[in-house]
Amino acid sequence: MAFFDDVKRFGKNLTDKGKDVIEITKLNSQINAEKDKIKDFYVKIGEEVYKAYSAGEETAYNEYCAEIKNIEDTINELTAKVLELKNATKCPNCGAEVAKDTSFCSTCGTKLN
Ligand SMILES: [Zn+2]
């Protein structure tokens, strides 16, 4: 009967191993969710620093903020090119994309040139 006991024990070990794998997967998933929360706070910290920089305050990260400003300028240039190709413009009041030949913004009703 020792043989069958060994088989039983082996089978039980496999079941436990399977449970461990599931538990490890669950725990790793929780760890990643917690790491994502930290990343969200990093983003918030970064946004606050950039807001301060944009308001003219001296920050410890002015170099990085200047890089972000350059990237924003590039995005604005590229967006302007896209609008030009679409023969559209942005509403000066709400920022909605509107066709150049319309008289009023379809989103907020502002009179356009
Ligand atoms: Zn508008």
Give me the secondary-structure topology:
Blueprint: H1 2-54, H2 62-85, E1 88-90, E2 97-99
Antiparallel strand pairs: 1-2
The structure holds zinc ion.
The stretches of 5 or more residues where confidence is low (pLDDT under 50) are none
- Count the E strands: 2
The SSE order reads HHEE
Strand content: 5-15%
Average pLDDT, rounded to a whole number, is 93
Largest sheet at a glance? 2 strands, antiparallel
Rg, Å, rounded: 29 Å
Shape: elongated
Q: Helix count? A: 2
User: Share of helix among residues?
Assistant: 55-70%
Count structural domains. Answer: 2
The helix-and-strand class reads mainly alpha
Structure description:
This protein has 2 domains: 1-60; 62-113, no CATH class. The mean pLDDT is 93. It has helices at 2-54, 62-85, and strands spanning 88-90, 97-99. Strands 1-2 form a two-stranded antiparallel ribbon. The protein is elongated and about 95 Å long. The protein is built from 2 helices and 2 strands. By secondary structure, the chain is mostly helical. Zinc ion (ZN) binds next to loops.
